[in-house]
Design brief:
The protein is an alpha+beta fold. The protein is 51% helix and 11% strand. The protein has a domain of 178 residues. A four-stranded antiparallel sheet has the order 3-4-5-6, with no helix packed on it. A hairpin with a 2-residue loop joins strand 4 and strand 5. Helix 5 runs antiparallel to helix 6 and helix 12 packs antiparallel against helix 13.
Length: 378
């Protein structure tokens, strides 16, 4: 599949070939779950709209016209109408991008927390060169300058612009420092409630991070997506993580995927996913998540007794610091209420309000069962 992406700045309009980006340590697993789509890869052959003047090892000017099959296409000012194709890792090759004169001032401003001068100054110089980041960092200073630009963009720039440039970067050729910034951008997309951008950035990271690193980011993001009602995005994250060859990670992903299906009241689909995980016992790494998922399935299937049995286990075994604890309080209180155990529901609701007085799950329970200012929860 091909997609045309128009670059926001001075002009690159090129066709990007989309090819599969595989998680380095993930193997094929048939889970019938949706997955994150692969991010586009930069082309190996392209022509810059504005040729870039650079310096060689001897500080002699050269003009980069673009790339051909991953090699540089270079013109020489002293040889009109001449072009050469040069391997990016050829002997004696170094592409030196001139350092802007005000760079020291921009760095000083950034050190004080003001990245605007850096962003404004580097944007027109760096952004058009994004695909030249395929040049190895040992053969150019472009990566250093581009990192300064990307950092300023991620921290203070326009979110749409930051995501757009991220989708054009050759992540396989970049250092982990860039990945750290991309992770920050993921969290920023959540803070700004742009879940479409969140999905785009996770697609980028899924092609560059190992399974463990992706899971460290993916599970909290999926939790935030579920809380926001974006179950489709959560399912894609779980589906991607469920491809892991690590059995514990695979099970955890399937459990949360099944849980998410149950939240959507897709009981049959939830059971189909959860039945891919064998019965777990106390002491198993994922037993807590297993109880939570099975309890939520019980509610979706109308089996309140089974739901309370599993959710009660999860409540006893989890701490108040667990990320899912407020949601667990909500589910267990709902279960007690629906089963007619009003005293137990009332007691748990008061405890819920003490530990999480401003939590969205508490507010949801109030709206559904007691009203926003119900005294029983105060």
């Amino acid at each position: 599949m091909n997609c045309n992406l128009r670059f926001w700045g001075r002009g690159l309009l090129l066709s990007l070939s989309v090819s599969a980006l595989c998680l380095p340590t993930l193997g094929a697993q048939d889970t019938d779950l949706p997955e994150l789509s692969p991010a586009p890869q930069p082309p190996k052959t392209f022509t810059l709209d504005m040729p870039a003047t650079v310096l060689d090892l001897n500080d002699q000017p050269q003009t980069i016209l673009g790339m051909e099959e991953g090699d540089l296409v270079i013109a020489f000012p002293n040889l009109p109408d001449s072009e050469a194709i040069v391997p990016v890792d050829g002997e004696g090759i170094f592409v030196k991008v001139p350092r802007p004169d005000p760079m020291d001032q921009w760095v000083a401003s950034a050190a004080r927390g003001d990245y605007r001068p850096m962003l404004k100054g580097l944007r027109p110089k760096m952004a058009p060169l994004v695909w030249l980041l395929q040049i190895p960092p040992s053969r150019t200073n472009l990566h250093i300058l581009f990192y300064n630009y990307y950092q300023a963009l991620v921290l203070t720039g326009d979110l749409e612009e930051a995501v757009a440039i991220s989708m054009e970067m050759p992540w396989d050729d970049l250092s982990t420092d860039f990945l750290d910034l991309a992770e920050n951008l993921v969290y920023r997309t959540i803070e700004e409630n742009d879940l479409e951008a969140t999905e785009q950035m996770l697609s980028v990271l899924s092609g560059s991070l190992d399974a463990e690193s992706l899971a460290r980011i993916g599970f909290p993001v999926a939790d935030a997506a579920r809380t926001a009602g974006a179950h489709e995005l959560a399912s894609k994250i779980y589906g991607t993580l469920a491809q892991s060859e690590d059995e514990a990670l695979r099970q955890k992903s399937l459990l949360w995927a099944g849980y998410s299906k149950a939240v959507e009241n897709q009981a049959a689909e939830a059971r189909a996913v959860l039945d891919q995980v064998p019965e777990l016992s106390r002491g198993d790494e994922n037993f807590l998540t297993y109880c939570l998922a099975r309890g939520r399935l019980g509610l979706a299937e109308g089996n309140t007794n089974e739901a309370l049995r599993y959710l009660s286990r999860a409540m006893v075994l989890s701490t108040v610091k667990a990320s899912f604890k407020p949601e667990l309080y909500y589910l267990l209180t709902v279960g007690y209420t629906e089963s007619g155990q009003e005293e137990a529901a009332s007691r748990l609701a008061r405890e819920f309000a003490i530990f999480y007085p401003e939590n969205p799950w508490l507010e949801q329970y109030r709206q559904e069962f007691g009203g926003a200012d119900e005294p029983i929860l105060n």
